[in-house]
Amino acid sequence: MEDEPPSPDSLCQSWWQCLKQRLCPCQIRSVEQMKSLVRQATESEIFPVSTGGLIDSVLDFHDLRVRDVMVPRGQMDVIDEGTTLPELLSSAVETGHSRYPVIRSNRDEVIGILLVKELLRFYASSQEMGDNHPDFDLLALVRTPMFVPESKRLDALLAEFRLTRTHMAIVLDEFGGVAGLVTIEDVLEEIVGDIDDEFDVEERINIRQQAPRRHTVRALTPIGEFNEAFGTDFSDDEYDTIGGLVSNTLGHLPRRGEVARLGQYEFKVLGADRRRLHLLLVTKLDFDPNEDADGDEKDAR
Fold this sequence. Notes:
single chain; alpha+beta; CBS domain Like; 5-stranded antiparallel sheet; 4-stranded mixed sheet; 10 helices; 12 strands
């Protein structure tokens, strides 16, 4: 008589017993121990490597703050309250966002959040009524914004997003000024990785000018692209990205606010977590520190 194949219930029980034996809660004293046990479980094929990666991300998630994932103030795409309907439609097509902060006189005065679907609903309704020049009141369409401090934990923010059914929040610094914005997608990407949909532009803008001598630069920007934009000649023999070059210069994975100097440029970390760099503020100095030192030596001679 042939042996009967194991039932799904028995397979599940076997998997669960094996997991409990390796991940017994009474043996866990720290997050690092938990990560070590997860690695052992993936190596033993108790669950897939992809699942182990998700567990690691969740364990790190608790320590992350809004400041680590937010879109900085300078990179926010905003709408002024006086913007006309044609200008709004053109901006929505160009940038491809589903929500926009609406400001009054500057970026510190965010008065609402505009949902593009509400804008399209208004436009479609006016077209059905044959009104080619509808009386447009932007403030009638905006929703009350959610404000959160940049120090708020991401797990708490995610819970608040779910409770209020909100997808975007305006981030405030310690002085009450607008530091940036954060979306539910930004939060979820810290667990599952980058989320791109069919409307995302395949090639992201890596370098944005904020002032004549200041640019925000994504840490994943290839060194070759950086050299071409800034006229530098940084080597890409050992590191492919500008973030890798900055990390090597400092000798460790930088934290938010740390500064490194390379040639005539200062690199300040605007966004980073315990695993990687996200965003840098690059400022061109008035002089090259190395050249200045050489000049001092020549003057001394």
